[in-house]
Design brief:
Helix content is 34%, strand content 37%. By secondary structure, it is of the alpha+beta class. It has a single domain, classed as Alpha-Beta Plaits (2-Layer Sandwich), CATH 3.30.70.100. A four-stranded antiparallel β-sheet has the order 2-3-1-4. Helix 1 packs antiparallel against helix 3. The longest helix is centred in the N-terminal third of the chain and has 16 residues. The chain is globular. The chain starts with a strand and ends in an 8-residue tail after the last strand.
Length: 102
Amino acid sequence: MIVRLVKMTFYAKHRDDFERLFNERRHLIGTFPGCHSVDLLKEVYSGEETIVYFTRSIWDSEVDLENYRQSELFQDTWEKTRSLFASKAEAWSTELAATFPD
């Protein structure tokens, strides 16, 4: 399993635009082959001018994640999302190293 984390900083004025886009696309992303789930997290104490969001998606494999990243769905979604950024996004592909309870 791959857990993909993406940190995105938006201008606060684009918050509603981003949330609307995410809500329009989350079902399509979450049902993409190999995807188990996709979540949106928001930083609790964002500033007045910017707001930080994270997406967390869980994938069967790196191949499934890469297939999504090469898809028209991703390309279109990313283009629309990127246009709202206040700064460059950061992303990590991770594996679960430990969990509680076991």
